[in-house]
Amino acid sequence: MSAAGTYTPKPGAAPLPRMIAAQAALETKMLLRNGEQLLLTVIIPTLLLVLFSAVDIVDTGKGEAVDFLAPGILALAVMSTAFTGQAIATGFERRYGVLKRLGASPLPRWGLMTAKTLSVLVTEVLQVVLVTVIAFALGWSPHGNPFAVLLLLVLGTAAFSGLGLLMAGTLKAEATLAAANLVFLLLLMGGGVIVPLDKFPDAAQTLLGLLPISALSDGLRDVLQHGAGMPWKDLGILAVWSVLGLGAAAKFFRWE
Fold first, then answer.
1. Do the domain assignments include residue 64?
2. Is 59 helix (H, G, I), strand (E, B) or coil?
3. d(Cα 91, Cα 176) in Å, to the nearest integer?
4. pLDDT tens per residue, range 114-167
5. What are φ and ψ of residue 204, in 5° steps?
6. What's the domain count of the chain?
7. Contacts of 122 (CB under 8 A, 6+ apart)
8. pTM for this structure?
9. 145-161 burial by CB neighbour count: b if 16+ within 10 A, else e?
10. Residues in Cβ contact with 212 at an 8 Å cutoff, skipping those fewer than 6 apart
11. List of residues 6+ apart from 52 with CB closer than 8 A
């Protein structure tokens, strides 16, 4: 005979780390199955890297164009996944009631944001590998401290993830779709990804340099192209955006 209570139901929430891990795995599977998101997060950055490296469209200064472009494309890949793709996907999850059902589960809002951010990080690993392989094939010669690069990518992910979740958790799905794509295009052209910031007027350079995409692309470029040490200024800008974005998302995010 079995001991008393062996088969007695014991309802209750799973440990929080297990809930976050399960949600992150689900988010990653959904992201990788979405063809439109893959177009935005993988195909567009790689096409831009190949096109602007092969064709002399923008004056990127001395040296090989790919040495300037590769760090910017890495920054663009982070933004496309953590901000644009995540904002659009989460916005429509809100509209279709997916988040409302998750809101009835024991998973807290910050736990959902953590799971989504972890999913983004997994996707970004694939992006970074793909962009790096293509850049090497185009003649890229990176330098610098790998730890500084990792720190920039993590802080950039946190900053864009917070902003994307804030947008998705406060605006309607259609407004999120339009705003996220518009911001993506504006930052692509004015964030130092393809066009160097020194091509803009002095007053505009100061303002554009405070944007998270500018801080991420410039920081990566300083390390990978110029072999600089820890880019503290750019890391500081990204840290401020991370705190503000994630803090605002945790406070104002609505499940429905």
1. yes
2. coil
3. 6
4. 887 788 888 888 888 989 999 999 889 888 889 999 999 999 999 998 999 899
5. -70, -35
6. 1
7. 24, 28
8. 0.84
9. eeebbebbbbbbbbbbb
10. 79, 156, 159, 160, 163, 237, 238, 241
11. 58, 65, 69, 194
